[in-house]
Write a structure and sequence with these properties.
Layout: H1 12-30, E1 34-37, H2 42-55, E2 64-68, H3 74-87, E3 91-95, H4 96-101, H5 113-128, E4 132-134, H6 143-146, E5 151-154, E6 182-185, H7 193-203, E7 214-221, E8 224-227, E9 240-246, E10 257-260, H8 266-274, H9 280-284, H10 294-301
Parallel strand pairs: 1-2, 1-4, 2-3, 4-6
Antiparallel strand pairs: 5-6, 7-8, 7-9, 8-10, 9-10
C-alpha cells in the first residue's frame, strides 16, 4: 500500500497575511492600549483589512488614529470614512490645524504640513496614553524604513534610535517598555509595493479612486507632477496642464506628486509596478527629496 503525503504550502501572499495577522494578535495581547494609524491610503487600508481578519467576527479591539494635515485629498478622506463606517470602528482625528492653534506645534510659514505631523502625532499618543501604534511602513519603501524592526521602540520623547533596535530572531518580539515610552508596530514590514497591489486585487479591497488613472490638472515642479489645488498654484514660468495620471502614494497635497499613467485597473497597475525601478516614495514624495537622510531625520524626531 502506497502512502501519499500531501505537501501543503502557502502562497507568498498567504504567508505574508499570516505573519501580519500574527503580529496584530501578539500586540493586542501584549500591549495595554494599542492604536492603528489610518490615513485612508493603500497601505493603511491593507493593514486595516488584515486587522479586520485577525479579530473577525469581533470588532477591532483598538481605535484608529489619523493625523489630519488639512491638505489631504478629498477622495482619500471619503474612503477613510467609508471604512470606518463599515467596520464600526472608533477613530481619533489629530488635526495639525488644531495643534498649531493650540501651540503644540509652531508654524513658521516655511515648514511643510507633513513635518508638522510629528508634533501632532506625538501629542495625540501622549494625550491618549497609547502604548503601541500600528503603522503601514514597509522596508522596501525607503532606506531608513529598511532599518526598521517589526517592533520599533520609541523613547519617552517619541524618538527613534536606529542603533537601539531590538533583535527579532525567530519572529520573537520584545515589547517591554518603560512608562512614557511606546512601540511603533509595522505589520507590513516584509511586504513590497507589488505584494500590496496583488493583495488589493485578490481581496477586492476598496481604495481611493486617485490610485487609478484619471484626468487631472497638474503642474510640473522639481520633476514631479503636482495636482492643482488651493495648496498648489503655478509659480514663475510654471503652467497648468491636463494629464492622464494616477497616484502611487497619497499624503499632503503640496508634497505628493502623481505619475503619468493609463492604468485604470488593479491588474494594469500590477503590470506597471512590476517594471518600475523607483519606489513610490522616491518617485512622488517631495518631503523625501530634501536630502539622502530626510526620512531618517524625521523618524528620529518621531515620524513614522
Amino acid at each position: 500500500m502506497t502512502t501519499t503525503h500531501v505537501d501543503y504550502q502557502l502562497s507568498q501572499l498567504d504567508q505574508l497575511e499570516a505573519e501580519s495577522i500574527h503580529i496584530f494578535r501578539e500586540v493586542a495581547a501584549e500591549f495595554e492600549k494599542p492604536v492603528l494609524m489610518f490615513s485612508g491610503g493603500k497601505d493603511s487600508i491593507v493593514m486595516l483589512r488584515l486587522a479586520e481578519k485577525a479579530f473577525f467576527p469581533a470588532k477591532l479591539p483598538f481605535p484608529l488614529l489619523q493625523v489630519d494635515t488639512g491638505l489631504d485629498f478629498d477622495e482619500v478622506l471619503a474612503t477613510r470614512d467609508s471604512w470606518v463606517k463599515r467596520l464600526g470602528a472608533r477613530i481619533h482625528i489629530a488635526s495639525v490645524e488644531d495643534a498649531i492653534a493650540n501651540g503644540i506645534v509652531i508654524d513658521d510659514g516655511k515648514t511643510s504640513r507633513n513635518r508638522h505631523q510629528i508634533g501632532t502625532l506625538l501629542n495625540a499618543i501622549e494625550e491618549n496614553g497609547f502604548t503601541a501604534a500600528f503603522g503601514g511602513g514597509r522596508r522596501d519603501e525607503e532606506k531608513a524604513r529598511a532599518k526598521e524592526r517589526v517592533y520599533s521602540h520609541r523613547d519617552e520623547f517619541g524618538q527613534w534610535d536606529p542603533k537601539m533596535q531590538r533583535p527579532e530572531l525567530w519572529s520573537l518580539y520584545n515589547g517591554r517598555i518603560h512608562a512614557g515610552e511606546h512601540m511603533r508596530i509595522f505589520p507590513l514590514s516584509n511586504w513590497t509595493e507589488l505584494d500590496i497591489w496583488h493583495y488589493i486585487d485578490r481581496e477586492k479591497i476598496e481604495i481611493p479612486s486617485i490610485y487609478f488613472a484619471h484626468e487631472r490638472e497638474v503642474i510640473l515642479r522639481d520633476g514631479m507632477w503636482l495636482s492643482l489645488s488651493d495648496a498648489v498654484q503655478p509659480k514663475g514660468n510654471e503652467s497648468v496642464e491636463t494629464k492622464m495620471v494616477r497616484f502611487r502614494t497619497v499624503g499632503d497635497k503640496s508634497q505628493t506628486g502623481c505619475v503619468e499613467s493609463t492604468a485604470s485597473t488593479t491588474a494594469e497597475i500590477i503590470d506597471e509596478i512590476a517594471i518600475a525601478r523607483v519606489t513610490e516614495r522616491g518617485a512622488t514624495r517631495g518631503d523625501d527629496r530634501f536630502s539622502e537622510a530626510a526620512m531618517e531625520d524625521r523618524k528620529k524626531e518621531g515620524y513614522f
